[in-house]
Amino acid sequence: MKMGKGRMGVTLQKVDDPDKIKVIKLNRRNLPPGKYKKVGYESRQVFDIEISRVVTEYRAEILEDSKGNQFVASFPEGVTKAVQYGGDLKAHSVYMSQYQLIPYKRIQGYFSDQLGIPVSEGSIYNFNQEAYDLLETFEEKAKAALVTSECCM
Fold this sequence. Notes:
The protein is mainly alpha-helical. The protein is 35% helix and 4% strand.
């Protein structure tokens, strides 16, 4: 479908594996008297998003032997503080800041107002710095690979 000069529209298509399926039962009291058998369904899909805060609490089990020695289970890699931000929140912040170019103050407001998560402008800066540091090695490898690669023109 064209939407003006040179622009193509996009039509939303059904997916084969929806995340949720809600069956709507027919109220048989509203039907004329008689015997009925189920012959199928008519389906419609609604694409939506769920944006919500998710707090995961890790509880490391502590065992004690008969001598009083305690042993504590290891926390997952990266879980190093009593309270910290998760990787998805950091990535979302970096995306909004670096790709969408949203100012830190507005990102801070989004996390606070929409998700109930206090995030300082300093934390947003730190998330960007962490992403930069993690991507620095990749950038150097990519540049080196490009310099030595064959080029087709």
